[in-house]
Specification:
The protein is an alpha/beta fold. It is built from seven helices and eleven strands. Helix 3 packs parallel to helix 5.
Length: 244
């Protein structure tokens, strides 16, 4: 069953080209794909290919110039309004995505507080810490007292606190050491299976994407140039020859 549908999505910006002249810069052109319910779809591309712009539009943070993003057949904005807390995101920079003055408890509780859902809060935070492999002892610590891997686990705990159906992982492991990346990938795989979530995994590391994702899209200069399925961490069944 199709869960997320991206339909003929394009995005362009006007930049100042001089006196009384504006030039249009095309970031994305005719992007079209779908994500099945419970699937992990990888989106890979070099810097400047449009990955971040595309993920922001899927999250409803930015509007396309043309086209539409739908979730379960309705616009992303309408779906989010009717499914509060059911879409979440984990960003690359775990240091800037948390409030440095918040304790770990308050960071994880933040989305729950935003939705007015504070019932049995401490108990639920302890369960979330256990899910992401962190001890209860970190609950009163501050971000600077944790390692990068630990802090990204906190961000993942925050992301799953509202029991989302769909998570966008925007370069979520690229700032971590290689050994820690493997641990986080295993955690993400385990959580997806346990909570039956749908993932969009945005990255530039092909091997990491292949290890986690069911399918991989290759974005190049604002266009999807290849789609591949994966089996046991290997990408197969290429639909183009641009990436080999």
């Amino acid at each position: 069953m199709m869960f997320v549908q991206v339909e003929n999505l394009s995005k362009s910006y006007y930049k100042d080209g001089g006196f009384l002249k504006k030039e249009k810069t095309e970031i994305l052109n005719g992007i079209q794909f779908f994500i099945k319910k419970g699937e992990c779809l990888g989106l890979i591309g070099e810097s400047g290919s449009g990955k971040s712009t595309l993920s922001r539009m899927i999250l409803g943070l930015e509007k396309p110039t043309k086209g539409e993003v739908k979730i379960e057949g309705v616009s992303v904005s309408k779906w989010m309004k009717n499914n509060k807390g059911k879409m979440s995101v984990v960003f690359q920079d775990y240091t800037s995505s948390v409030n440095p003055h918040f304790t770990i408890r308050n960071i994880i509780a933040e989305p729950l507080a935003a939705w007015g859902d504070s019932k049995n809060l401490d108990e639920r935070i302890n369960v979330l810490l256990a899910k992401v492999g962190l001890p209860h002892a970190v609950i009163h610590k501050y971000p600077h007292e944790l390692s990068g891997g630990q802090l990204q686990r906190v961000c993942i705990a925050r992301a799953i606190s509202t029991e989302p159906e769909f998570i966008v992982l925007d370069e979520a492991i690229s700032s971590l050491d290689v050994s820690v990346q493997a641990q986080i990938l295993e955690l993400l795989r385990s959580l997806q299976n346990e909570m039956n979530m749908t993932y969009l995994f945005v990255a530039h590391d092909l091997q990491a994407v292949a290890n986690l994702c069911d399918c991989i899209l290759f974005l190049y200069r604002g266009k999807i140039v290849d789609r591949r399925e994966t089996i046991d961490g290997y990408h197969v069944r290429s639909r183009s020859f641009i990436f080999s």
